[in-house]
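Example 9 (inverse folding). The structure is encoded as follows.
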């Protein structure tokens, strides 16, 4: 995929982003931050279609009426978009999204989203700036490796732009039966557990053991292939998982915590973005 930088988009009016972050292009697709309330609405509508209509999340009456996935973090977050320029401009072009909540934004709410499921107190002690990733989804026709790579390029640019040192969040398996993904959970727990100093742990009341079978019986290569693409993406960046899974009945998922020290993310792209910054 040949990716190049095009002229910078107008100053952001959502979240806490600063002007100067440029759109990255790959053919008809681009990745950039949302630039207005119309695009935020498009993000929330896309999340509703994917999470509620397609994947079986449970919606309350207000969510059904609005046909939008909305929570308090949306107003303080930055929203990374994948846009298809063949569909036009603005909200009509939004086909993918990733929500980015920086440390200062979380302080406005009083917590990070992941704290509903995990004890992340050890991350608070980690020096440097932290970023929470979440609410990632793409429209069905855009679920390809190329789109995921474009999202990761956008995240790498964002990390460089804001000097992020560590990023984390929850990633999910579909469904609420951990035994249905016993091999995958066991593989992650035995091969990719985070160092103790940066290891989130599922809250006591929600903790689900990830080591669900004898790891000696696993077929690592086959198990790795079955992991959701987003989780494989974190692992390719050198990411780790936290201790314990969590069942999210509202979203019909089995969640794990993921942690990535961002020098692993930015190393590949550092010189490119340094030249652009100059």
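The amino acid assigned to each position is listed next.
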């Amino acid at each position: 995929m040949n990716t190049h930088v095009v002229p910078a988009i107008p100053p952001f009016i959502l979240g806490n982003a600063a002007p100067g972050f440029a759109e990255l292009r790959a053919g008809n697709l681009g990745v950039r931050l949302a630039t207005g309330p119309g695009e935020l609405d498009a993000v929330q509508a896309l999340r509703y279609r994917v999470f509620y209509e397609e994947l079986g999340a449970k919606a309350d009456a207000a969510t059904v009426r609005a046909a939008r996935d909305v929570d308090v973090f949306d107003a303080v977050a930055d929203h990374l978009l994948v846009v298809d320029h063949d569909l036009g401009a603005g909200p009509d072009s939004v086909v993918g999204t990733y929500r980015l909540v920086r440390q200062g934004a979380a302080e406005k709410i009083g917590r990070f989203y992941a704290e509903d499921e995990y004890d992340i107190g050890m991350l608070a002690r980690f020096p440097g700036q932290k970023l929470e990733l979440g609410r990632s989804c793409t429209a069905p026709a855009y679920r390809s490796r190329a789109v995921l790579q474009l999202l990761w390029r956008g995240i790498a640019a964002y990390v460089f732009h804001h000097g992020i040192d560590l990023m984390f969040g929850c990633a999910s398996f579909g469904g609420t039966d951990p035994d249905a993904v016993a091999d995958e959970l066991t593989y992650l727990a035995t091969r990719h557990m985070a160092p103790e100093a940066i290891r989130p742990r599922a809250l006591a009341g929600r903790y689900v053991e990830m080591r669900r079978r004898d790891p000696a019986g696993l077929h690592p290569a086959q198990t790795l292939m079955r992991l959701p693409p987003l989780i494989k993406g974190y692992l390719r960046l050198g990411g780790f998982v936290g201790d314990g899974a969590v069942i999210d009945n509202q979203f019909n998922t089995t969640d794990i915590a993921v942690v990535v020290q961002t020098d692993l993310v930015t190393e590949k792209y550092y010189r490119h973005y340094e030249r652009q910054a100059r």
